[in-house]
Amino acid sequence: MTRVLVVDDEPQIVRALRINLKARGYEVDAAPDGRTALDLAARRHPDVILLDLGLPDMDGTEVIRGLRGWLTVPIIVLSARQESDDKVEALDAGADDYVTKPFGMAELLARLRAAVRRSSPVEEAAVVRTDAFSVDLAAKRVERNGGDVRLTPTEWHILELLVRNAGRLVSQQQLLQEVWGPSYAKETNYLRVYMAQLRRKLEDDPSHPRHLITAPGIGYRFEA
């Protein structure tokens, strides 16, 4: 049975999550603050964590960093903070997804299921296929319509990072730092240019991409 740790100091939200999660067969633990969350995570070994950023004793990003020192399970942030800087900070700290309050329960449960699926220990596929193109991670090769797609080294590096994190939001800062280096962390215009080039080469309709998705002001996500 999948165990969920809910970290939130709003009793009504905790109650609603507990009821909905238990009704769908999840085991639920709850923590009203960061220190309790860290203690419960160590003792109860959750499979996924739902975490509010506005905790009474410490900021949620501190909790994420504390957990990521030893825990690899998915962390989904639930927060009323809508600024892109807050979202980027949480993702860079190690969160896997970010859901803004108020949220729909059906959407949250879908994201939770997807996070648990992605965390399951399966062998990474050497070839990732979409309905428009395929990516061979081992051979560093992309095919579309039966032929090879020529990518520059930078285009490949961006695509590889997104594909290896399929379904997860990769922040602009992470992409910039890993592709260009720490001194380029604010050059978001680079990403816009290269993502446009990738979409022209890979998407059937670059103006309405299905696989290389933008989260405005936050980052990008690959969906197969």
From TrEMBL:
<dbReference type="InterPro" id="IPR039420">
    <property type="entry name" value="WalR-like"/>
</dbReference>
<keyword id="KW-0804">Transcription</keyword>
<dbReference type="InterPro" id="IPR011006">
    <property type="entry name" value="CheY-like_superfamily"/>
</dbReference>
<dbReference type="InterPro" id="IPR001789">
    <property type="entry name" value="Sig_transdc_resp-reg_receiver"/>
</dbReference>
<dbReference type="Pfam" id="PF00072">
    <property type="entry name" value="Response_reg"/>
</dbReference>
<protein>
    <recommendedName>
        <fullName>Transcriptional regulatory protein KdpE</fullName>
    </recommendedName>
</protein>
<dbReference type="GO" id="GO:0005829">
    <property type="term" value="C:cytosol"/>
</dbReference>
<keyword id="KW-0902">Two-component regulatory system</keyword>
<dbReference type="InterPro" id="IPR001867">
    <property type="entry name" value="OmpR/PhoB-type_DNA-bd"/>
</dbReference>
<dbReference type="Pfam" id="PF00486">
    <property type="entry name" value="Trans_reg_C"/>
</dbReference>
<keyword id="KW-0805">Transcription regulation</keyword>
<feature type="domain" description="OmpR/PhoB-type">
    <location>
        <begin position="146"/>
        <end position="222"/>
    </location>
</feature>
<dbReference type="GO" id="GO:0032993">
    <property type="term" value="C:protein-DNA complex"/>
</dbReference>
<keyword id="KW-0963">Cytoplasm</keyword>
<keyword id="KW-0238">DNA-binding</keyword>
<dbReference type="InterPro" id="IPR036388">
    <property type="entry name" value="WH-like_DNA-bd_sf"/>
</dbReference>
<dbReference type="GO" id="GO:0042802">
    <property type="term" value="F:identical protein binding"/>
</dbReference>
<dbReference type="GO" id="GO:0045893">
    <property type="term" value="P:positive regulation of DNA-templated transcription"/>
</dbReference>
<dbReference type="GO" id="GO:0000156">
    <property type="term" value="F:phosphorelay response regulator activity"/>
</dbReference>
<feature type="domain" description="Response regulatory">
    <location>
        <begin position="2"/>
        <end position="112"/>
    </location>
</feature>
<comment type="function">
    <text>Member of the two-component regulatory system KdpD/KdpE involved in the regulation of the kdp operon. Upon phosphorylation by KdpD, functions as a transcription regulator by direct binding to promoter regions of target genes to positively regulate their expression.</text>
</comment>
<keyword id="KW-0597">Phosphoprotein</keyword>
<dbReference type="GO" id="GO:0000987">
    <property type="term" value="F:cis-regulatory region sequence-specific DNA binding"/>
</dbReference>
